[in-house]
Design goal:
The protein is α/β, with parallel strands linked by helices. The protein is built from 12 helices and 12 strands.
């Protein structure tokens, strides 16, 4: 996903002279092409994320379209006050890109885990929260955020994420993407676990259950019409996200559902626990440790179905 972002931002800069890229001492070689082409539009701000956010706000107030980029917890929680006061309060067109969302940096420990960033970002007024499901959606998300010209947080994975979309889908902020129709269970994949949700639909099909697959790439604002359709159509709905249960996409849907009067008994949320992960391991091992693997998810859904 990060390579897809680097290519997208480099390509988009060609047609948009206002685009400026700020990095928090990360991805220097990854942005070599960008720096070669646009040397006056790249700033390495070092490990000073609060300053980087403030600088981005100043550039936006001056008429530019800045994008900040660094590891997810450092581009969200470390500079939360600056995001709130400098970007969201004046409603400036700053795009914050957090790389390594969820447990992408699992082997570096809790300081590099981001299981709380969606919660932190979606409570901020004027902020938009986008979680692309694969590299194809990453490019589309950056394009959409630039067109939006509002405070936007884009949460991406790290590297090696598989491509889910076989063709370029229609992408709009606040509108989910239906990849597969079903009649029994709906799998809502959020961000970099979209391939995991897709795998679950295949396993459910093997068990005789018709499962739909939805990429809910925008957590704020939610897709009101799509969610209403899902709750009307399906008997069971599962949200899969690499984020803590509290405050994530599942929580956002629960909040939405309370105002809409839908049957929230249909909803199952598969997310992380309310604790830090202290053991070392790679992303797959970390997911398995907290129950975010296809076998456990499908087992739970089949049990709930019967």
């Amino acid at each position: 996903m990060r390579n897809a972002f680097a290519k997208a931002v480099t390509d988009l800069a060609q047609g948009n002279s206002h685009l400026v890229l700020l990095a928090g001492d990360i991805g220097n070689r990854m942005f070599d092409t960008f720096k070669d082409k646009y040397p006056t539009r790249f700033y390495n701000c070092g490990v000073a994320e609060a300053g980087m956010t403030g600088l981005a706000a100043g550039l936006a107030a001056s008429g530019l379209l800045p994008i900040t980029y660094t590891i997810t917890p450092f581009n969200t929680l470390r500079c939360l006050e600056q995001i709130r006061d400098d970007v969201c309060y004046p409603d400036l067109p700053v795009i914050l890109v957090g790389t390594g969302g969820g447990l992408s940096y699992a082997n570096l420990g809790a300081t590099h885990h981001s299981m709380d960033d969606i919660a932190a970002m979606r409570i901020l007024p004027n902020m938009h929260v986008i979680c692309p499901g694969d590299p194809v959606e990453v490019k589309l998300a950056v394009e959409a955020a630039l067109d939006l010209k509002r405070p936007t947080y884009i949460r991406i994975g790290k590297k090696g994420e598989p491509i889910v979309h076989t063709q370029t889908p229609s992408f709009k902020v606040g509108k989910g993407i239906v990849l597969r129709e079903g009649s029994d269970i709906a799998l809502i994949g959020v961000g970099n676990v979209l391939p995991l949700a897709q795998e679950c639909t295949h396993l459910l099909a093997d068990k005789g259950l018709s499962a739909g697959l939805i990429s809910l790439h925008t957590i704020k604002p939610l897709d009101h019409e799509l969610l209403l359709d899902i709750f009307n159509k399906y008997k069971l709905i599962a949200v899969v996200e690499e984020h803590a249960l509290a405050g994530g996409a599942g929580s956002a849907i629960l909040e939405w559902g309370c105002t809409q009067g839908v049957d929230l008994r249909k909803l199952r949320c598969f997310a992380g626990p309310d604790r830090f992960l202290s053991a070392c391991g790679d992303q797959i091992e970390a997911r398995t440790a907290i129950g975010l693997d296809s076998a456990k998810i499908v087992q739970s859904l089949v049990h709930g179905w019967h």
